[in-house]
Structures are given as structure tokens and as C-alpha cells.
Amino acid sequence: KFPVMGVRWRSSLTLGEKEEVNNKNSEDGGNKEVVASYWGIKGEEVKKEDGTPWKWNCFRPWETYQADLTIDLKKHHVPTTFLDKLAYWTVKSLRFPTDVFFQRRYGCRAMMLETVAAVPGMVGGMLLHCKSLRRFEHSGGWIKTLLDEAENERMHLMTFMEVSQPRWYERALVFTVQGVFFNAYFLAYLASPKLAHRVVGYLEEEAIHSYTEFLKELDKGTIENVPAPAIAIDYWRLPADSTLRDVVMVVRADEAHHRDVN
Predict the structure, then answer these.
(1) For the whole model, what pTM was predicted?
(2) Would you call 168 exposed, middle or buried from its count of C-beta atoms within 10 A (0-12, 13-18, 19+)?
(3) How far apart are CA 93 and CA 164, in angstroms?
(4) Helix (H) or strand (E) holding 71
(5) What is the mean pLDDT of the chain?
(6) Nearest 5°: phi and psi at 153?
(7) Nearest to 48 by CA among 248, 256, 252, 240
(8) Are residues 170 and 108 in contact, defined by beta-carbon separation less than 8 angstroms?
(9) Which of 10, 60, 241, 243 is the most buried (most CB within 10 A)?
């Protein structure tokens, strides 16, 4: 069986897992002050709807939602124009090395690819933000839409970090791939936003395929269907007894939504 390993990363620490820092205001310098932030600042106390404390520092209760699992997963934008075909075959050309590298290790594959998937929304939102400032005009809601997409993809990563542990060379690969992809996408967006969005749309179609294969491996028992990480249960408002399969289902639905937007 392919292993699914638990790992705790600093970025997904809950508010309950507090850190101790030196209290510089103390006379003897030996006292400790408990803080719940990387910056050493105590955040406001947030509670759930039932009044219990909210334990996550990477998102808030009002940023959670229930994924639409009824979304059409088979929808495909047939490439017609030159830009469509360029975007389509660019994505298809990237599929082969990805399959060769990750094989059927879908847990690590999902986690590693989400480090890239969260880039386009941030790049597009940033460039549209600057354009809005330069032209003194509204964005039509696209800035927030793209930044929300980037945040959603980042939460996919925060989730899969809890169930998969990357190898050292996979971590190194993140630096290389993200650096190349960020700059390439930035230039592509400057040259043609439509091309850039088409690339993302076709990338999301491939993501849907990958998560469908992930589900098949879970159903066959090749990958252990472990309990869903707590962060996923709170973010997607899943039942307390949800499993990794339920998480993959909602992530796949998210990717289908991003496909349609782009």
C-alpha cells in the first residue's frame, strides 16, 4: 500500500498550540508570555457558531463553506482559437513528466501540485489590482475572485500536508517549479490574460482527472482511507467522521469550479 503519513507543519498550527516567547518587558527577563501568532501578537478570540473556540490561525469561520459536489466534472472547453490550442497543448505537454515523476503516489502528487496551483490566482489578482490602480477603475469583482481562488488552492495544500510527507528532493523541486512557473505565468498574463486563464482552465481539467484517479486508488484500497484532517473538516464543514475520500471529493469539486471560472 502507498503510505499516507501524518506530519505537523508550523503553518497549520492551531491557535491552541501556542508558542512561548521571552517577555522583554519583565525586569528579570526570565518570565514567559504566551502568544498565538508568529509575529508575537495576540489575535482576537474567535468562536464557532456553537460558541466553542476557533482553533485555526490560517482561516476564519466565515471563510468556510460546503463544496458543491453536483458540479459537472466532465465539462470540457474544446480548443478552437490559436490561443486555446496553445494553452491546451502546453498543459498536455506538462502532463507526461508529472506522471513519470509521481507515478501513482497521489497523496504527494496532490500536495506538490497545489504549491503551483495557488500561483495563478495570486499573479492574476496582483496584476489586475495594479491595473485598477493605474486606470482608476473598478475590477468588476475579478480581483477578489482570483485571490479567493489562490487562497482556496492554498488551503488544499494545508490539508494535504497533514496526510502526506514529501521527500527531500520533492521539497527542493517545489522551489524550482514554483520559481519557473511564477515567472512564466507572470509574463504570459502580461502578454495575454486570456491565454493565461485558458492555461489554468486546462490545468484544472487535468487536476479533476488526477483526483478521480486518486479516488479510484482509495476505493481499491491501494491508498489507506484515513480519517480526514481536522483542518479539512472545519474548512469544508464536513461531518466529524469524514475520511480522506470525502476530502478528495470536495477538493475535486473545487477544481471543477476553478475550471469554469477560468
Answers:
(1) 0.80
(2) exposed
(3) 26
(4) none
(5) 83
(6) -65, -35
(7) 240
(8) yes
(9) 243
The residues, ordered by sequence, that sit 6+ positions from 137 with a Cβ below 8 Å of its Cβ are none
Cα 185 to Cα 98, 114, 178, distances in angstroms: 18, 15, 10
pLDDT at 15: 47
State the first-to-last Cα distance of the chain, in angstroms, to the nearest integer: 36
> d(Cα 139, Cα 129) in Å, to the nearest integer?
8
* Number of helices followed by number of strands (H, E) in the chain: 8, 2
Asked whether the predicted pLDDT for residue 29 surpasses 70, the reply is: no
Q: Is the dihedral of CA 14, 227, 254, 94 positive or negative?
A: positive
pLDDT band (50, 70, 90) for residue 104: low
Residues listed for the chain: 262
- The residues spanned by each domain of the chain are 71-261
Is residue 189 within 8 Å of residue 127, measured between CB atoms? yes
Do 204 and 198 touch, CB atoms closer than 8 A? no
The set of residues, in sequence order, having a beta carbon less than 8 Å from that of 244 and lying 6+ positions away, is 4, 163, 218, 223, 224, 225, 226, 227, 228
Burial 63-84 (b: 16+ CB within 10 A, else e): ebeebeeebebeeeeeeeeebb
Q: Are 45 and 53 in contact (CB under 8 A)?
A: yes
Mean pLDDT of 128-148: 94
Superfamily name and number for 71-261: Alternative oxidase (1.20.1260.140)
Q: Which residue has the cell 480548443?
A: 79
In terms of Cα–Cα distance, which of 257, 202, 185, 259 is closest to 84?
202
